[in-house]
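Translate structure to sequence.
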């Protein structure tokens, strides 16, 4: 599928990388179909609206920068996107790049949960979580490297 993007022009995205987020993302509920594609900077990926070229989010797998990251999501919540087995789960976090020398952060409190089998997703807020909305990625990468 060809997807028009603001950052990269037209990008060819395989059908298996098109995901549906039935409830949308927080603040962007009207957009429900997105394409996942690699960014120029590994390990980041883009979550691009297929309907609105200017709506795209940089994302990262939280386990890359924080191997101890954990999510505790109720099975009833997961059933909304037909997850029945942990092997179906892909967890991604939205990244903020503020500029001005400020820290690049990821929202560890509100991850995006994707069912790899059905390509459905949903954003959740983790209950009673120790995880912040602004997890410093550079500090996390440094710690992961030291521990790994």
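Result:
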């Amino acid at each position: 599928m060809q997807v028009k993007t603001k950052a990269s022009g037209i990008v060819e995205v395989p059908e298996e990388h098109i995901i549906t987020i039935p409830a949308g993302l927080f603040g962007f509920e009207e957009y429900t179909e997105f394409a996942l594609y690699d960014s120029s900077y590994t390990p980041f990926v883009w979550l691009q609206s297929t309907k609105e070229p200017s709506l795209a989010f940089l994302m990262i797998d939280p386990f890359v920068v924080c191997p101890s990251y954990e999510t505790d999501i109720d099975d009833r919540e997961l059933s909304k996107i037909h997850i029945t087995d942990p092997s179906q789960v892909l967890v991604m976090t939205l990244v903020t790049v503020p500029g001005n020398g400020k820290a690049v952060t990821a929202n560890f409190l509100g991850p995006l949960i994707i069912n790899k089998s059905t390509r459905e997703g949903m954003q959740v807020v983790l209950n009673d979580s120790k995880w912040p909305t602004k997890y410093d990625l550079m500090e996390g990468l440094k710690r992961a490297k030291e521990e790994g």
